[in-house]
């Protein structure tokens, strides 16, 4: 139960529930799919035989608004973007930052960061991915003319010049990022940010192909025009029907990219999603499962139902400006008397976790026990 000065909140740590065919891929590949929710490269355990046909058909929840990393903001778009484009860092199976295009990085006082790019990182047209590609991409991301939904994302990293650029007081070329050489990128921050590198797993920090954008303009993301640097390239895109990606032979880690083709379907209905899975039309459902089906399917096909942590907290708000909840004693009594486990396991019954704070327990650096001790100090009820 969460309580703050303006509202009374009961929280639930959100989880992602979906079902995936275990027969499709080896356990290691399945783990990669579930951890990142994308078809990334994975190590196949010794002695494991893969399915003869390595293709994946999955529901993506809805039609995407764009495939431009600087124009997207939804989960469906991010799922596909992570397959098509790779940033300096990616997330590993445990959700921790891992080398992507950058094979290593270092920093000076957490203020000047240097990223060393892989020499074998290439675009799908065969040209090398360079540090200048990231300079161009990040400048494009914060350019007011791009109108990126995540233009302000780099502000979290306090990159030098970002505030003034977004306010229109400085040109995008004043952004604190520069290419030392083709494979060395230097980023200067306005203040020390120890967690800066962790921000770079976000799709909006991925590189975009300057030549394709300048040649095709707004149509650069169409099949035949798009150039990508991730594990996959765009094969087909039929709006409101399907998006098909195929394995990119130029991807630096292509040898470990097991799945050859991924088809994304825009199925909005959760019930339809499950029905098409059970009929064999799709191999993987979207992030949510109908509450009335979760417990049933968990019993019928336990090896195919997966529940994974989701970086999100849901909570219920109660107006504390009106009686009886304007009395702190009533709010405290309700907080102490509410059984989160009943709400999670009996009411919602979708595999969620009880919330004892706003920050999910699997957030790197979260110190829930310490936070609770401070919260329970006199005057903090």
TrEMBL record:
GO terms for molecular function: peptide transmembrane transporter activity. InterPro entries: SBP_5, SBP_5_CS, SBP_5_dom. One of its GO terms (biological process) is peptide transport. Keywords: Signal, Transport. Residues 97-366 form the Solute-binding protein family domain. The keyword Transport applies. GO terms for cellular component: outer membrane-bounded periplasmic space. It comes from the Bacteria. It is found in: Periplasm. Residues 1-41 form the signal peptide. It holds the Pfam family SBP_bac_5. The keyword Signal applies. CDD domains: PBP2_OppA. Belongs to the bacterial solute-binding protein 5 family. This is Periplasmic oligopeptide-binding protein. It comes from Escherichia coli.
């Amino acid at each position: 139960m969460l309580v703050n000065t303006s509202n009374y909140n009961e929280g639930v740590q959100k989880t992602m529930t979906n079902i995936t065919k275990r027969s499709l891929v080896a356990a290691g590949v399945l783990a990669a799919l579930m951890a990142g929710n994308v078809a990334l490269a994975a190590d196949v355990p010794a002695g494991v035989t893969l399915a003869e046909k390595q293709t994946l058909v999955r529901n993506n929840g809805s039609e995407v608004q764009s495939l431009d990393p600087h124009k997207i903001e939804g989960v469906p778009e991010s799922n596909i973007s992570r397959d098509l484009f790779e940033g300096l860092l990616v997330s590993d199976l445990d959700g921790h930052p891992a080398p992507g295009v950058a094979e290593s990085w270092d920093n000076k006082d957490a203020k000047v960061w240097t990223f060393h790019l892989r020499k074998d990182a290439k675009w799908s047209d065969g040209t090398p991915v360079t540090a200048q590609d990231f300079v161009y991409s990040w400048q494009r991301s914060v350019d007011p003319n791009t109108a990126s939904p995540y233009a302000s994302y780099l502000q979290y990293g306090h990159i030098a010049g970002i505030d003034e650029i977004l306010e229109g007081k400085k040109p995008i070329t004043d952004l604190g990022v520069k290419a030392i050489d083709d494979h060395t990128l230097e980023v200067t921050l306005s203040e020390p940010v120890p967690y800066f590198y962790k921000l770079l797993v976000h799709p909006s920090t991925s590189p975009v192909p300057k030549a394709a954008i300048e040649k095709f303009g707004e149509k650069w993301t169409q099949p035949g025009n798009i150039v990508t640097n991730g594990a996959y390239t765009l094969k087909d895109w039929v709006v409101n029907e399907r998006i098909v990606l195929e394995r990119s032979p130029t991807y630096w880690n292509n040898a470990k990219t097991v799945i050859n083709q991924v088809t994304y379907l825009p199925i909005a209905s959760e019930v339809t999603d499950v029905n098409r899975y059970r009929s064999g039309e799709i191999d993987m459902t979207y992030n949510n499962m109908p509450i009335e089906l979760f417990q049933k399917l968990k019993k019928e096909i336990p090896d195919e139902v997966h529940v994974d942590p989701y970086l999100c907290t849901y909570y219920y708000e109660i107006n504390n400006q009106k009686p009886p909840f304007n009395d702190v004693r009533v709010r405290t009594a309700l907080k102490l008397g509410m059984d989160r486990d009943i709400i999670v396991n009996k009411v919602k019954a979708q595999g969620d976790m009880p919330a004892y704070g706003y920050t999910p327990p699997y957030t790197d650096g979260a110190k829930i026990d310490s936070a609770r001790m401070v919260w329970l100090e006199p005057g903090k009820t």
